[in-house]
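Fig. S4 source data, part A: sequence.
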Amino acid sequence: MRLSEISPVKHAAIVLAAAAWLGWAPMASAQTAAGGPPSPLVDEVRAGVMAHSINANNGEGGADLNLELLFRRPGGRYDNPLLDFALRPRVHVGASVNTQGDTSQLYAGLSWDAQLMPRLSLELTFGGALHDGPTGGGLDDSYGCSLNFRESASLGYALDERWTVYGTISHMSNADLCDNNSGLTSAGVRLGYKLK
């Protein structure tokens, strides 16, 4: 069965099941420094709604329901803050499911974030997305390849030490590596919860 034959509802069910299992399954590795219980594998869970396409040249529409998991950073720190930022990103996996049956995505990649102010943060991501949208020549909004690059930027405002609201813009395209490359840019609001 091809990915494009799986309904968006099934995409969401698979991701939600993975989120439920990963979000509450503790790591089998080392305990915390205080000798307490192991840390969860997942660091943060985010959910939100995105405007599917903010490109004037893309005919797809509707809203995307977005769910994303961010895993804990690798252990160890660097003495240099720039190296610590660059070499210790968080891994993320997620899904954006279109509510009108247009293109949905499963994606994964790396997330780099920086505190701008005590409650304000900036996050940049880069990775790949597997989608169920059109890929053939001569098709409207053809994305060329089933596997594309995906990048995003988010501005976060911490409501407290666990909850953060994010304004996010994301873009999926193949960088002209395939014959067609209409690209898909989405924007919206997400709510994040840290699983300390």
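Fig. S4 source data, part B ends here. The longest helix spans residues 8-24.
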